[in-house]
Amino acid sequence: MSKVDPEKLMVKAEKLTKLSFTRWTADWKSAVVLYEQAANEFRATRNDEKAKIAFEKASKCHEMISQPWDAAKHLESAGSLAKQLGEWNEVLDFFRRASELYSECGRAQPASDALAKGARLLAEVNPEEAIRLFNDACAILEEDGKEQMAFDLYRDATEVYIKLERYTDAASLLLRWGLAADHCKAVNSQCKAYLGAILVYLYTHDFKQAEKCYNDCSQIDAFLSSDQGRCSSKLLAAYEEGDAEEIKRICLSSAISHLDHMIIRLARKLPTGDLTSLRAKDAEEEALDEDDLT
Amino acid sequence: MSVIDILTRVDAICKKYDKYDVEKQRDLNVSGDDAFARLFTDVENDIEAALQKADQASKEKNRASVVALNAEIRRTKARLLEEVPKLQRLALKKVVGIPKEELAARNDLVLALPERIQAIPDGTATAAKKTSSSTVSRMGLKIDSTSDGRFESEYFEQTEQSSQFRQEYEMRKIKQDQGLDAIAEGLDTLKNMAHDMNEELDRQVPLMDEIDTKVDKAASDLKNTNVRLKETVNQLRSSRNFCIDIILLCIILGIAFCLKR
């Protein structure tokens, strides 16, 4: 087949879809073929702008002939091209729409995959949106009962949170991760998620929260009797005693070295802040208690 | 030289050359037929020699020669002890020309022999004492290594050894601990990896089941399609229909040709 000018193809396809006096119904099927061809040609010649437009139009045609799967696929391609062009709003729109189309097909996994892809592309530029996309993706999978697939998403979302230094959000996300792991009986991941949450709380120097978190997690037998549980109890004990050397030693131990690298980075920076202040606070509280008793 | 010395020297020389003393030999020859008497005198002479050697050993300054003499004495003693049962058997034999009392006396003599032989000093007694004391001190060595601070003067030499030993033991223990720590870390990593692999496989099981059903369906569809296609192609290929088609075609062409002409 000879090389046809993609511009010409685009024009032809346009004509097919435009309603006019002589044309009462648009011929989506043939139009879509032309649009696809044109888009491929544009992509080959690195004409991203035109290729993106062609893909968009092709996907619209697919929608019209109720082929949501193909439509979604084209939207994804359009989205990646938009990212190369740096049009972030369009990226967001395209991937959201693609995910909706996949859900229409009844396929949850590709839907969440589309959202995750969009989120990863946006992570650097628009992290807030990225987080929202990640959350939605996790929600889709959880609804469908496929929590195990969500682990990667949780990990990426936690990374974004930590980059944004929103540590409480990161910790709550880790706890959600632990919950998802609990649903699918992934004990190791669950314990690692809980240990990660405790570490994040300690990194923010919020010892009370960390303790509360540890107490909550200890309700779960699996965590209590696991390596990670033991490690966290030792860490909290070291914090109470104010022994910085001990904390550093624990953070170099194997239980922590097997967590995700961003959490290891936080752990290596422990202890943050002043340990004696924690002890002073405890002493004050004790004094108050004595007063209350007498 | 004193008189006593002369006397002893004369005695020794006489003893040495007794075998050339004819009268004495005649006396001995009376008992020459008597095997017991012969053997008994031999044994007595050997005992005497051994005792002399023991005397010499106790006076010796050179420890090596003492050891050698003691060894010889012990060999002699062992040999003599072997002879004793022979003597006993001979003593019980009845010999012509010897009264009954003498026979009884011989038996007693033979019985007394083993004691006399054992009494010969051969240095093992003192050696036994020495070894017992050294074993005691070795026991002390063991006690030293477990409970510190028994620095008695007799055991002082051993505690130097024991402290060296203890140091080496500590060093080896530390090295072993380091090695075990490394092994523990490696095992932790392996455990973590194994857990992760376990979870990953659990994740993939339902996916594989889905793939399984889908592929089964596709395979059965393909089979159906193949069968139907085979039937269709067979129908088309049936040679009878083909020949009829060709013949009819030729007839039509012929008719058209004729019509054209």
UniProtKB/TrEMBL annotation, chain A:
SUPFAM superfamilies: TPR-like (SSF48452)
Record GO cellular component, one term: vacuolar membrane
Subcellular location: Membrane
Keyword Transmembrane helix: no
Protein's UniProt keywords contain Transport: yes
Alphabetical GO biological process terms: intracellular protein transport; vesicle-mediated transport
GO MF annotations in UniProt: soluble NSF attachment protein activity; syntaxin binding
PANTHER family on file: GAMMA-SOLUBLE NSF ATTACHMENT PROTEIN, SOLUBLE NSF ATTACHMENT PROTEIN SNAP
Topology class, membrane: Peripheral membrane protein
Similarity-based family: Belongs to the SNAP family.
UniProt keyword list: ER-Golgi transport, Membrane, Protein transport, Transport
Name this polypeptide is given: Gamma-soluble NSF attachment protein
Originating organism: Spirodela intermedia
TrEMBL record, chain B:
GO biological process: intracellular protein transport; vesicle docking; vesicle fusion
Alphabetized Pfam families for the sequence: SNARE (PF05739)
T-SNARE coiled-coil homology domain boundaries: 170-232
PROSITE patterns assigned to the protein according to its UniProt record, in alphabetical order: SYNTAXIN, T_SNARE
Transmembrane segments: 239-259
GO cellular component: endomembrane system; SNARE complex
Bilayer topology annotation: Single-pass membrane protein
Entry-linked InterPro entries: Syntaxin, Syntaxin/epimorphin_CS, T_SNARE_dom
GO MF entry, a single one: SNARE binding
Keywords: Coiled coil, Membrane, Protein transport, Transmembrane, Transmembrane helix, Transport
SMART domains associated with the record: t_SNARE
Localization per Swiss-Prot or TrEMBL: Membrane
Entry annotated with the keyword Ribonucleoprotein: no
Superkingdom in the source lineage: Eukaryota
Job description of the protein: Vesicle trafficking protein that functions in the secretory pathway.
Subunit and partners: Part of the t-SNARE complex.
Family as reported in the entry's similarity comment: Belongs to the syntaxin family.
Protein name: t-SNARE coiled-coil homology domain-containing protein
